[in-house]
Design goal:
The complex is a heterodimer of chains A (225) and B (395).
Chain A lengths: L3 H19 L12 H8 L5 E7 L1 H4 L1 H12 L14 E8 L2 E12 L4 E8 L5 E8 L5 H4 L2 H5 L6 H4 L26 H21 L13 H5 L1
Antiparallel strand pairs in A: 1-2, 2-3, 3-4, 4-5
Chain B lengths: L2 H11 L1 H38 L4 E5 L5 H8 L7 E2 L1 H7 L4 E14 L7 E8 L4 H4 L5 E4 L9 E4 L1 H7 L6 E4 L4 E9 L10 E4 H7 L5 E2 L1 E6 L5 H9 L4 E5 L1 H43 L1 H9 L4 H29 L1 H11 L13 H27 L3 H9 L1
Helix pairs in contact in B: 1-11, 2-9, 2-11, 2-13, 9-13, 10-14, 11-13
Classes of the chains: A alpha+beta (225), B alpha+beta (395).
Chain lengths: 225, 395
């Protein structure tokens, strides 16, 4: 027994040190830091929530990724926006009744990662907006209630008019009303709008059965389906 | 016809016996080379693995054994520092191979989460820290360009969370200072994955804490006694030590045990080989007693007979050990694979390290031992009296 214990200890230590090196690691997702507190705050009236984990890789693979990129009007960029990123969807309950969803995505800001969470009703309309993480010189302005309130009531239909590459909004779009509180924070503002559009597209694919797909007039994905 | 030709002809007269004897010697050589090759390979791979663990001892200011935890709990305030000169003092110790100085600092970021959060930065010495962590590889970029550059290297998970790539900027919010990302590390499976590294001097300058450290990583020499070193460290004022001594000692105990086992098996292999050679040559001498008697009657001296039999032994040993060496070298990859499957833990890298000096030494040793074993049968052969030998044939 005495001879086994050091061997076991060594095995455990070495496994933890070296085993992990060879192991596989999932990409980083975007979860609420404190779901109990955040759900109650973002969805007043909620009494509980269920957590669903999905990824583009498991849901539809490269073909789904292509469709999502087409709807977004941009390819998934960087080394961290990958097909295997796990997305956490919080299904919000009021008693036994489902009343909406909360979902967050990571985005690349000027000085660090931005985490944008949206509280959505059962029709995919934004009920609340929340920056969980934001590193910016103008964080205070971007996290202000006034800025977040601009997103409330909008849906994916409104964001199809936003070009995430050029950062241009079609004047006829309701989303065109969203204003950048600080001109110097342009990079973070654009990253936020891209994150919101991406968030809504993912939710439409994962939860809403592509009910907003027909609004995407330039999408060939619509023809394929 | 030379004595070498006669010896070879004699060996060929009993082909099966000669082959079996050679095979026995080859087996001994094979076992010896494989065992010593494994011993060398295992030890060097294990040492490499231990080295890749980085520093084995972490010296921190007293009251701050787990600096990161303290930082998180206290939010960077109330940190305990130690003077940088302690690092120089530790470097002078005879057991020390290298030291690396570190300074961790956190800043409060009001925009992190609902009620703000802390970002931690680890200041490292770009000249010593990378050598302590040889397993660290860059996915993109490299280490800092200057010891006081406003640059950052990110562990994989830190880069993933911050969505940073080489060339991007990081903002140290509290100080409103931008640093440029110059490197993103590959995953290591350690806490380094979530770390943001900055040059030590940069951290000291930014946070106004010059000439102080929160940690000193110490890498000891292989032969160093960690426990003794630990005791020495406790004599330094206001520091405490976190070591991996138990792990390293356990590993080294296992290596020593393995060495003893290997040497015991090698000794047994040598004894079997010696007995086999002696038995075979002695048997051959007994069978050829009359023949040796006739040779003596024809004028061969005792020394000639001794040399003839000894030469036969030599040829058997040289051929057998060379064959064994060839087999050991050609099957080393297979042996490596088999051993790796059997062992509960095998370090990374080759387990078999068969070098030319090892092969030459083994062939020489086996031949030498064979020759020693052949002395008695050869001496017996030299002592054969012609009349006794001829008479024994008549009987």
């Amino acid at each position: 027994m005495h001879a086994i214990r050091p061997a076991m200890m060594l095995g455990l230590v070495l496994f933890s040190v070296f085993g992990m090196i060879e192991g596989s690691f999932a990409a980083v997702g975007c979860d609420l830091n404190d779901p109990d507190r955040d759900v109650a705050r973002l969805f007043p009236g909620a009494t509980g929530y269920k957590t669903i984990y999905v990824s583009i890789e498991r849901r539809g693979g490269p073909e789904l990724l292509k469709n999502i990129e087409e709807r977004l009007g941009d390819s998934f960029r960087g080394i961290y926006e990958t097909i295997d990123v796990p997305y956490t969807i919080y299904e919000i309950m009021q008693g036994t009744e489902r009343i909406g969803y909360i979902h967050g995505v990571n985005a690349k800001g000027q000085y660090g990662g931005i985490q944008v969470f949206l509280a959505l009703d059962l029709n995919g309309v934004i009920q609340n907006f929340y920056f969980q993480k934001l590193t910016s010189r103008f964080g205070k302005e971007l996290r202000s209630h006034n800025f977040g309130a601009q997103f409330i009531g909008l849906s994916l239909k409104d964001f199809y008019h936003y070009n995430v590459v050029t950062g241009m909004l079609d004047g006829n779009s309701t989303a065109a009303r969203i204003t950048n509180p600080v001109p110097e924070a342009e990079a973070d503002f654009k990253a936020t709008l891209r994150a919101v559009k991406k968030n809504l597209i993912l939710m439409d694919e994962f939860v809403y059965g592509n009910r907003y797909l027909h609004y995407c007039m330039t999408c060939r994905a619509q023809e394929r389906r | 016809m030379t004595i070498v030709h006669i010896a070879c002809k004699n060996l060929l007269r009993k082909k099966v016996r000669s082959l079996l004897t050679m095979f026995g010697i080859a087996l001994s050589a094979w076992v010896l080379i494989s065992l010593f090759g494994f011993n060398a390979g295992y030890e060097s791979s294990l040492n490499r693995d231990i080295d890749s663990l980085g520093y084995q001892v972490l010296v921190t200011a007293k009251g701050c054994p787990y600096e990161a935890a303290t930082l998180m709990l206290k939010g960077g305030t109330g940190l305990r520092y130690m003077p940088q000169r302690i690092a120089d003092a530790i470097a002078q110790e005879s057991e020390v191979e290298a030291v690396t100085a570190m300074l961790m600092h956190t800043v409060f970021d009001p925009n992190k989460g609902e009620s703000g959060g802390y970002s931690a930065y680890l200041g490292v010495d770009p000249t010593t820290f990378p050598k302590m962590k040889p397993f660290m590889e860059f996915m993109h970029g490299g280490w800092f360009t200057q010891p006081d550059a406003l640059e950052a290297v990110l562990g994989y998970e830190a880069a993933e969370l911050e969505q940073r790539e080489v060339g991007d900027l990081l903002l140290i919010t509290e100080k409103n200072i931008e640093v440029k990302v110059v490197g993103v590390l590959k995953r290591t499976g350690t806490q380094d994955d979530g770390t943001i590294f900055l040059p030590l001097r940069t951290v000291q300058q930014i946070f106004g804490v010059t000439d102080v450290l929160t940690g000193i990583g110490v890498k000891l020499k292989h032969e160093a006694d960690i426990t003794r070193f630990e005791e020495k460290m406790y004599r330094l004022p206001d520091v405490q030590v976190v070591t991996m001594s138990q792990v390293k000692q356990t590993i080294m105990t296992l290596v020593t045990t393995a060495k003893v086992i290997v040497l015991s098996i090698a000794l047994i292999a040598v004894l079997i080989s010696m007995t086999g050679v002696m038995n075979t040559v002695l048997m051959s001498v007994m069978e050829r007693r009359q023949e040796l008697g006739i040779l003596k009657a024809l004028g061969a001296t005792s020394l000639d007979i001794f040399m003839l039999i000894w030469l036969e032994t030599f040829v058997l040993c040289v051929l057998g050990s060379c064959f064994g060496a060839v087999v050991a070298v050609t099957t080393s990859a297979l042996t490596d694979m088999l051993v790796r499957n059997i062992l509960p833990y095998a370090p990374r890298g080759g387990l078999m390290q068969i070098s030319m000096p090892l092969v030459v030494m083994t062939v020489g040793t086996v031949t030498g031992i064979g020759l020693v074993s052949g002395i008695y049968p050869s001496w017996q052969a030299g002592r054969v009296r012609p009349l006794d030998a001829i008479r024994s044939q008549e009987e």
